[in-house]
């Protein structure tokens, strides 16, 4: 009997730890997946808004074509971002009810504000933007895409503030009666250093992601000498954005690193596989070690650099994993406070690596396609033709030849994937690096799962969502490829002449144009009733 | 009235907004099979909600987020307790959203047919399941001392909650048909009347049975008043459909849904999720709510933002106010 009871206990324990693992896998899969679409959406929204602004200000059709082309790819993306976001909103309650009870008083507020301020904004104005081409005056329609863009950034900010509370809890007190977190200052939660820094890092990375996407597809067409006018413009825009925001990502990443060295020394020690405290500490380029014994067997490192990264001084001490673990045991009681070291170590490196390579390729591209700087008259003259593929000028008087140019375009095409990998590894690093905590120093992941949800239920949702996401990924990527390959649309007269008032007729030149009296406007509306919708699902 | 009582009202308002708006979205999705006779008519229906369905769905996300912020215990118990039904709803909302956006992006027959099937089923299932879920919330579920749901999936399927599912299905179908009458033109507009009348009559009977049952179980005066409002609005809506007063019909069918949802919330108060195991273990507005400070912050956010949201959402409906008919549908895709 006792044996059976012990066995039953054992099974229950195994199932509950299995449930924890599955819930963690589910959160990881759904969140990483969701985050493929988010940065692309934010980045592309901004780029499309810039292109459409150029169209409204200059009336050059090339900008309208570019807006429509990138806008379509943006819409294919935002659709996936929106629908996968629904799961994000509810899975805290589904799989992590104990967590939701513990932090709800603090964590719920930014989530609700995100919905109220950002989601309504994005969704309403994206609808107006999609269907408003032939209904809204030019400037009002332009305002819609800017509002969508602002909405996506607001949304990012609120959820990053909520995540920052998990990384570095502030503005709360632990309630004596319930033992749960209680909000004491919303401004601290929303505007703490961690939130502001991480928002800066994340948003710059989003623009780098969008720019790399634009760069890759522009390069694809330019290599084939197709849609040259639109793709030239897009390429230049994306290269400038990639370089500016690539540098911004690096700089903000550096400040975020410094914040994390102070707030979560364990995460940063793990990021470096720095087992013992060192003064000065080296930056590890490569390491292979034994996690159980707590040391590296092979290591390649640059002396002093980690000290500099942690607080801008080449000689300062950086606490190692073993010492930090010991310090946390003193503080939080016995236990193992180490995250998964190889995941943190490689996640950190791949994030930086992929990000830096995208920035470097952007910089090289910007140099090769430069328009004026250090360029001979001969090459500058060849640049002048807007319908020619830009020459790739290596030095003042020499362009890349027939053999090397295609390689530049190929590498640029592949670059579009690199920031996506960097983003994913960054999140995998920062979220697994915080383990075993779900809220750093306050609440452990193992205590956060829903006690009432069974192993089978989590398994079901994990399998269903993973399968669904897999199928949708195939559909989405194929659709993106189809529309990316198709290139910009041909413009009609109606596209070029949007109405001058809401729901009015197109402002076509000729006899129909002009103000006219109210009666005639009414007539025209009736005529327009026969006109099919410019955009229909 | 405490601040958490007001928040109970705000949550109720968000759900009313959600069911009012996505109610007709679901209805339109269901009608793609019941009302549309060919692909062009299907497209007419889909395009009546094309620009607005996403904004309508955000009411759900806001209701979820606001529940998390104002009643964390309710959020935690509800979504972990109703795990599988919620999963089905989420899966449907994902597929349905993608279906609206992707259906016209390829012209292949099987591609479009596949997404059309998805739009129908993924509108129908949530329309039923929301009714089942709310039926269970009002009826009460097995909550233990820690407010954890200890029942299983089958416990959620009882006659009362299934009746609730039938009610939402029929009312949303009617609401969608009335909306189609308001937003379309041509043959489909004429035919929408018949569907409105049939689904509305059946929906009125089911809704009355469900609401009277609720009234017997909970028996509040305000609930009774709302029951009367819902009943009268439904009957008047049917009358207006018959008389061809489409604007009034839509206002009234919306009023009926709003009154019915409000009645459920009135019957629930002061509980938010009653426990059938022991009334002392029920989640209530006071034991499920956030602290006063959080509620004050959220009150400010809601009071500033909800009117603004309503204003620009209403504006987007105004921009797309024109009726759509098969003549408006471009031939391509």
Describe the secondary structure blueprint for this structure.
The complex is a heterodimer of chains A (537) and B (333).
Chain A: H1 2-58, H2 61-95, H3 97-131, H4 138-167, E1 172-174, E2 181-183, H5 186-191, H6 193-223, H7 228-263, H8 265-271, E3 283-290, E4 295-302, H9 305-311, H10 321-332, H11 341-368, H12 377-383, H13 405-415, H14 418-432, E5 437-439, E6 443-444, H15 455-486, H16 493-496, H17 518-528
Antiparallel strand pairs in A: 1-2, 3-4, 5-6
Helix pairs in contact in A: 1-2, 1-4, 1-6, 1-14, 1-15, 2-3, 2-7, 2-15, 3-4, 4-6, 6-7, 6-11, 6-13, 6-14, 7-8, 7-11, 11-13, 11-14
Chain B: H1 3-34, H2 39-49, H3 53-70, H4 72-81, H5 83-102, H6 109-139, H7 159-183, H8 187-218, H9 221-243, H10 246-268, E1 271-273, E2 283-284, H11 292-319
Antiparallel strand pairs in B: 1-2
Helix pairs in contact in B: 1-2, 1-3, 1-6, 1-7, 1-10, 1-11, 3-4, 3-11, 5-6, 6-7, 6-10, 7-8, 7-10, 8-9, 8-10, 9-10
Task: Give a quick precis of the structure.
The complex is a heterodimer of chains A (537) and B (333). Chain A is mostly helical and 537 residues long. Chain A has helices at 2-58, 61-95, 97-131, 138-167, 186-191, 193-223, 228-263, 265-271, 305-311, 321-332, 341-368, 377-383, 405-415, 418-432, 455-486, 493-496, 518-528, and strands spanning 172-174, 181-183, 283-290, 295-302, 437-439, 443-444.
Number of helices of chain A: 17
* Helix/strand class of chain B: mainly alpha
Q: Domains counted in the coordinates of chain B: how many?
A: 1
Biggest interface between chains:
A-B, 77 and 76 residues
H/E series of chain A: HHHHEEHHHHEEHHHHHHEEHHH
Derived from helix and strand composition plus strand pairing, the structural class of chain A reads mainly alpha
Number of helices of chain B: 11
Order of helices and strands of chain B: HHHHHHHHHHEEH
For the largest beta-sheet of chain A, the strand count, sense and barrel status come to:
2 strands, antiparallel
Number of domains of chain A: 1
Beta-strand portion of chain B reads: under 5%
The largest beta-sheet of chain B arranges its strands as 1-2
β-strand number of chain B = 2
Shape type of chain A: globular
Poorly predicted ranges of chain A: 513-527
Provide the helix percentage of chain B. Answer: over 70%
Binned, the helix content of chain A reads 55-70%
What radius of gyration of chain A results from the CA coordinates? 27 Å
Mean pLDDT of chain B: 94
GO biological process, one term (chain B): aerobic electron transport chain
Main location (chain B): membrane
Protein name (chain B): Cytochrome d ubiquinol oxidase subunit II
InterPro entries (chain B): Cyt-d_oxidase_su2
